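Run log // design_07
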């Protein structure tokens, strides 16, 4: 049976499936629907003010009694303050888009919170495991948003062999066959973003969902034009235009977007600069690329909230090219678990089924 794994035992969910924390997408409605379906819903907080984060946590709790988590930017200047909000509101799971510091992990574990960073390399998994992380989400290059170059089928077994904590596989998963494949590699479950974005419980506008459903695998690309980092998204006229634009034009566009995000998020310019410095640390980014990183939240909002596919970008895993429906979270999770069991039964053969 696929229902119980090290992941389900660790966080207390019914099924080894995680709905990832996608900015502007993973809000209270989607998170609570995923949690009620038996998956681990993760609330995306990076695009929220601290006050909105507190409200969103309470809204999720009003909609479900099931466990859920909150995703944080480990490099944000106010990460410690957001952790305190989580602790005050009794959140059970902390997810991180980047490796959190040893001190942040210790603070969370001291309060009994399960810490699950997302990583894109074996060495990062080894580091956070040594610092006390309870599990890791490993995203291969097929995953949406900021991503690496190593495919999940290569990265996942590397990490499983390297750490002694539960490993959750992300990047390229959308059905029961993928769940079985991940379990066969030694993972404790799968994490999915694009598949949960494309559900009826997602608040993404219908015309934007239609663009995803119409995409083929060749319509999903990786570009550095948006924020200077490899970013997997749907190829659109805007992405093509950004790739063709000169440096000065792109930088001016980024500054306008940064100003917009500053007003929306409540951050000050010093805080934005501090976050930019954290982003630059350990990466070969120019200062113009650091400013370009401010593009991402507002460009994502334009599509994911405002429905403007002409003015925004649509982060996407490659699986968008093979998804063709919009089930509810309950229907999706039930289908995945049923498919996975059917696959396992088929692998067992007639004798296995008789037993």
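design_07 sequence
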């Amino acid at each position: 049976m696929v229902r119980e794994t090290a992941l389900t035992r660790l966080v207390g969910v019914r099924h080894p499936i995680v709905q990832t924390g996608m900015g502007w997408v993973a809000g209270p409605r989607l998170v609570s629907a995923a949690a009620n379906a038996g998956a681990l819903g993760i609330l995306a907080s990076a695009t929220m003010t601290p006050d909105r984060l507190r409200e969103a946590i309470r809204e999720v709790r009003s909609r479900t009694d099931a466990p859920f988590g909150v995703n944080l930017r480990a490099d944000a200047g106010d990460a410690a303050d957001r952790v305190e909000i989580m602790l005050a509101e009794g959140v059970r799971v902390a997810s991180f888009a980047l490796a959190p510091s040893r001190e942040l992990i210790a603070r969370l574990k001291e309060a009994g919170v399960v810490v699950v960073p997302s990583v894109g390399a074996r060495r990062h998994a080894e580091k956070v495991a040594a610092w006390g992380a309870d599990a890791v989400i490993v995203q291969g290059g097929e995953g949406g948003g900021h991503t690496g170059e190593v495919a999940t089928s290569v990265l996942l077994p590397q990490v499983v062999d390297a750490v002694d904590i539960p490993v959750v596989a992300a990047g390229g998963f959308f059905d029961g066959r993928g769940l079985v494949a991940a379990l066969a590699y030694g993972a404790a479950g799968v994490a999915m973003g694009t598949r949960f974005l494309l559900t009826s419980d997602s608040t993404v506008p219908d015309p934007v969902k239609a663009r995803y459903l119409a995409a083929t695998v060749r319509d999903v690309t990786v570009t550095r034009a948006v924020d200077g980092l490899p970013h997997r998204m749907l190829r659109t006229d805007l992405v093509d235009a950004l790739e063709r634009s000169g440096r000065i034009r792109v930088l001016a566009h980024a500054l306008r977007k940064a100003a917009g995000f500053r007003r929306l998020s409540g951050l000050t310019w010093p805080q934005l600069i501090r976050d930019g410095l954290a982003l630059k640390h350990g990466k070969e980014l120019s200062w113009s690329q650091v400013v370009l990183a401010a593009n991402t939240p507002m460009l994502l909002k334009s599509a994911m909230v405002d429905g403007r596919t002409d003015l925004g970008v649509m982060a996407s895993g490659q699986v968008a090219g093979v998804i063709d429906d919009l089930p509810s979270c309950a229907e999706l999770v039930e289908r995945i678990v049923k498919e996975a069991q059917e696959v396992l039964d088929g692998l067992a053969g007639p004798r296995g089924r008789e037993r």
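The chain has a mean pLDDT of 90.
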